[in-house]
């Protein structure tokens, strides 16, 4: 069938592909340890479910305004005000079907053909593809574990030019868990201030921070508000991935353009999910649940980083946030698997070997623009983490 050319520039999501493969193996009764999925393994807190049940019982099951119910947009604005000391009107907030949808709408609304978007690598897979499908050009700024995945000021200055329409700031980051330094945030601010360039601050992991305090560009310079889009959502913070609620707070012109697209595509996010998200932001006790999840992730972080660093040929960065470990496995790629005639060579091959022979699902670093690494989500139990690390150690030992 003849299909739209515009999709030729995007690839299927490797994260979703690995997750699907691992799920299929599990459904056949194979005991796979899944480090692939980017979602918390906790149930949604009960107060949030109660808010949704109440909405169903009250018949809150119809269309809502496209941009979301006003109470939810007000609650989002109130939270931003409380956390970052910047004010947004409810009309400057758009609720979408997940953070991914928010970002998709944003790039569709912002970019013209050839417009550049600066992205720090390793980067979340969808950024580059969403930019490309909107006609934009991703400009990648490479970082590595040795600099804490933090770009230098020179790299940032070099990447931002007259064609730059946006810079994406994602800290803590998927896939590395790195927090960008204050120097980096300040450099981005100084490069774009007073220009037509937007800072897209993807704060989706802002509540999953293990060292220091979360900070975005508006904490450093509130006067930049007209040039910033804050993207966030319920998925990671409240363990609500399936409810599909994300949002953007930003300049009115951008929000209205995004809303126009949403009017003509999905319309409103599910009415019941919106009430659940309102419960997440306002119901008493939710904050304690979020903190409990954060502490559990923190224990797992320490454990998995220690276990990975104990494996010969693996060097693991200690993430400041999110729920991903992103070890460097370049040394292992120089080694040869049992029965093979040549070294592994690529992280894709290592990931295949790990899944097929050792029953561990992880995502290759090359999927995030960082060959030589792999991403392990530690949103799984300590028992699974131990079992998976035992298997990775076995795999490493089997290589010659
Ligand atoms: C960096 C980043 N931004 C945004 C999202 C979007 O999440 P959701 O669409 O579930 O809200 C994700 C999810 O994996 C992510 O990792």
UniProtKB/TrEMBL annotation:
InterPro entries xrefs: Aminotransferase_I/II_large, AspAT/PAT-like, NHTrfase_class1_PyrdxlP-BS, PyrdxlP-dep_Trfase, PyrdxlP-dep_Trfase_major, PyrdxlP-dep_Trfase_small
Family assignment from sequence similarity: Belongs to the class-I pyridoxal-phosphate-dependent aminotransferase family.
SUPFAM superfamilies documented for this protein: PLP-dependent transferases (SSF53383)
One BP annotation, GO: amino acid metabolic process
Upper taxonomic lineage: Bacteria, Pseudomonadati, Myxococcota, Myxococcia, Myxococcales
First-level EC class: transferase
Protein name: Aminotransferase
Organism: Anaeromyxobacter dehalogenans (strain ATCC BAA-258 / DSM 21875 / 2CP-1)
Required co-factors: pyridoxal 5'-phosphate
GO MF terms held by the record: pyridoxal phosphate binding; transaminase activity
Swiss-Prot/TrEMBL keywords: Aminotransferase, Pyridoxal phosphate, Transferase
Domain Aminotransferase class I/classII large intervals: 31-392
Domain of life: Bacteria
Enzyme Commission designation: 2.6.1.-
């Amino acid at each position: 069938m003849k299909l739209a050319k515009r999709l030729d520039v995007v690839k299927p999501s490797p994260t979703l592909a690995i997750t699907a493969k691992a799920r299929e193996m599990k459904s056949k009764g194979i005991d796979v340890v899944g480090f692939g999925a980017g979602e918390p393994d906790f149930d949604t807190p009960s107060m949030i479910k109660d808010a949704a049940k109440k909405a169903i019982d009250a018949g809150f099951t119809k269309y809502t305004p496209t941009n979301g119910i006003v109470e939810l947009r007000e609650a989002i604005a109130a939270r931003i005000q409380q956390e970052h000391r910047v004010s947004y009107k409810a009309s400057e907030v758009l609720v979408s079907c997940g953070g991914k949808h928010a970002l998709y709408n944003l790039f569709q609304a912002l970019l013209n053909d050839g417009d550049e978007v600066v992205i720090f690598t390793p980067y979340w897979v969808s950024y580059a593809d969403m930019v490309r499908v909107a006609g934009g050009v991703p400009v990648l700024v490479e970082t590595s574990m040795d600099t804490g995945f933090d770009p230098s000021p020179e790299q940032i200055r070099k990447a931002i030019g007259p064609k730059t329409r946006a810079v994406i700031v994602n800290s803590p980051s998927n896939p590395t868990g790195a927090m960008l330094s204050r120097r980096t945030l300040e450099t981005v601010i100084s490069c774009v201030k007073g220009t037509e360039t937007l800072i897209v601050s993807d704060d989706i992991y802002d509540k999953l921070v293990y060292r220091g305090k979360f900070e975005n560009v508006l904490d450093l310079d509130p006067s930049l508000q007209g040039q910033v889009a804050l993207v966030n959502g319920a998925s990671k913070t409240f363990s609500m991935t399936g409810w599909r609620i994300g949002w953007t707070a930003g300049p009115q012109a951008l929000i209205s353009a995004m809303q126009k697209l949403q009017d003509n595509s999905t319309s409103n996010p599910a009415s019941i999910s919106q009430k659940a998200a309102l419960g997440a932001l306002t119901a008493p006790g939710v904050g304690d649940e979020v903190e409990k999840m954060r502490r559990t992730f923190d224990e797992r972080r320490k454990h998995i980083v220690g276990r990975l660093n104990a494996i010969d040929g693996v060097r693991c960065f200690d993430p400041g946030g999110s729920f991903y470990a992103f070890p460097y496995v370049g040394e292992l790629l120089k080694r040869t698997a049992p029965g093979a005639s040549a070294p592994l060579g690529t992280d894709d091959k290592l990931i295949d070997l790990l899944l097929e022979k050792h029953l561990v699902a992880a995502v290759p670093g090359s999927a995030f623009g960082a060959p030589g690494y792999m991403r392990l989500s530690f949103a799984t139990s300590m028992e699974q983490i131990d079992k998976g690390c035992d298997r990775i150690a076995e795999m490493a030992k089997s290589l010659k």
